Model the fold of this input.
Amino acid sequence: MHLWLKPALAQEIVGYAREAQPNECCGVIFGTGETAVQIISIPNIASEPKYNYHMDENALAKALYQAEHSQLEVIGFYHSHPRTEPIPSPVDTRLANYPDVAYVIVGLKNGEAHLAAWSIKRDQVMPIELVVSANKPIIENKQLSIVQKRAIIASAIIAFIFMLVLSLSLLPPAPIIPLH
Ligand SMILES: [Zn+2]
Done:
């Protein structure tokens, strides 16, 4: 799994993160598949926005409605860490309710922006390859899909049966044993 952001979109997220300092910013990433198309900033209404984020539900609902109308899906959420690394905090992990999206974090440790993307499934946090480039990345799909796996197994079975039939047909006829 990877997430592709064009440089302008990555800069947009970093821009929101810098504007929100010393608070955290948050928002939604719309796109199709693994391609980000649009960034929507959502107000952070956490009681302690310096240390956490909580997206304003009304703004979020509005954004989701917009996305549906533009035939886009939610492929990720982003938020910022104004003083630390872009690594999910225990609270980030606990509150991550969507196992199939990318969680992008902008870390502004020492004023330098670092972006990272994560997959958070229950308590499992795994890094996602974040590609920031103008052109669509060519990423080999190393994992075979179930359909591909089935096709490989099926062709192996067919090949085996074919060999079996072939070898049986090539067997010399059974010798005739004379009976006395
Ligand atoms: Zn966080």
